[in-house]
Design brief:
Shape: globular
Number of strands: 12
Radius of gyration: 17 Å
Order of helices and strands: EEEHEEEEEEEEE
Strand order of the largest sheet: 3-2-1-10-9-8-7-6-5-4
Strand content: over 45%
Helix content: 10-25%
Number of helices: 1
Structural class: mainly beta
Largest sheet: 10 strands, antiparallel
Distance between the termini: 12 Å
Amino acid sequence: MQVEIEASLPQLKKHGRLHAMRRISALGRITYEVLHFEGDNAVKSQVIARYLAADVKAQANDDPSLAVTPANYKFKYKGLVTDGSRHVYVFHLTPKKKRVGTFKGELWLDAETCLPVRESGRLAKNPSIFVKRIDFVREYDIQDGLAIPRQIQSTTETRLVGKAELTVRFHDVSLAGSPSLSVAGSGQ
């Protein structure tokens, strides 16, 4: 899949944009091939590179204690809402144990497939003493029975440089042996 990453450090008035190919091997290993970068190198090294490294590390660890399951989270049903033409179940989630990688927030499940269409919230435990908090929204499209990532938005409050904002957009998703899937809302 192609990935567009936009990041900024607003208090420092620094911005950057990276275009890359993201590949996941049959064994689940994530790699990135950078195609183009424009912007400030501080954003590239301090925000974008950290996101890419965390994404690769998270996939490599694949820790079952972080999975959004009843074993790890308390689910509270909030109701059925309509998101466009789709009905979704909304759940409030609270981790049973605060671990780096768990979050407190909401999970939206498609009423027809029970696949996630949105996850949002705040990380339950900060990964570093330099981080005050991390808020995020992950959105998915459902295609061919799979939840395909569409966009991730993240705001990190840091102790050193203030706010760091990151938006990751995924498009031109293709699965091995399948034609390319066009992710809705990607603009491509």
